[in-house]
Fold this protein.
Amino acid sequence: MKLMLRIFNLVFIGLCATALILLFTLPSFSLYSNVGIDVKKISSFVPETKYTKDLDISEMIGTDTIYVEIEFSLSVGDLHKAMNNDRETINKELLEKNITEIATMLQEPIDNITEYVVRTAVKSLIQDLITQEVKSSIDAAGGTQKPEDIMDEVGLNDLYFTRFADALYTAADSDDSSVAKLTDVVYNQIDDAISKAGEIQEGIDISGFDASYKEEIKNQMTDIFDELNITKEGGKLEKISELSYIYFTQYIKDQLNGKVTDNSVLDKKDTEDNKQYSTRMINIYVQTLMPDMFYTVVSYVCLGLFIGLFVFGVIWLFLLVITALKSLTGKPWTFFGPLFWIAGILEIIFGVGITVFCKFILPKIEIDMGNVPINTFAIAPRTYALGLSIVFLVMVVLMIPYTIFKIDAKKQVKEAKKNEED
């Protein structure tokens, strides 16, 4: 029996060594998170016009939530800093490392929202301009037809306006695009459309349409482009492909204005392009508006893990040493004291309990996220205690046959001692 106990002791020593290795080599705290970004909140970054104020952005992109994955890990040194509610460390290790990925994942839906809104505004503007001119031509001839009926007859339908808007959208993405150049494009297109209507339809008078109408086109386009914040100094236009960065950055800047210690950090640097500026602003935005609850929870979790790191280490080391020493004696059974059981239960709590809590209980707790555009979040934390809890459970299973051998071994020792006394 003693031989069997010594064999089991070697297994226990190996498990203790494994626990110690896992304790100090695995990341102290890792977190995998899925955050749901509220589409309605972030879609407010696009300027509103009379043509877009009633758009349902959630319906357009097919969802009211955009999911972003976040993951990070903390070392022992990071735990020590974070447990003191060191926001700089928490921001650096938990947030900044994920900002680029978050910005990248957000960029596609933000691009889609921006493009949809701008194309809709451009398409509606063109449709209004042509409709107005067709109506003027009907009125000049004393006709009674509806502009829409004549437009349908000559092919000025929804597909036509969609294609025209796409072409105009592409033209506005050039480096030298301007209101004047786009006005010429629109004027020529309207001229062509009106000419077709005049050739095919009776009861309209197109003689009143001439180059003087360009000014009306320019004024209406300027109004819409101003509402969309596309117009620059001198009538130049922002590149359409850059608008998502420009819009989102301005939205963030408005949200942060007065909430940072130095508003100059919100200004674009000479060395930054629009994408880099947008990423930096997202970083500032997340760090500034992240609720205090986030930092408090992280701080307390790190404090508990930091204390547990050394408590668990001492207990596993003690068990390893006492088991090794006992294996060399005539009574080779090791000692599993109350501290071992307490530590084991705590390891299960830190290793399995936190994960279960965060997966099933935390999502049901209402947390005020303030102005942060988050409506759902799911987190799956992993701590060094997860590996330790598995080792602990393996030892508990092995302790069942070990206890049987231990009882038999004690009986043998007692019988041997009794025989010696007799």
Remarks:
- The first helix runs from residue 2 to 25.
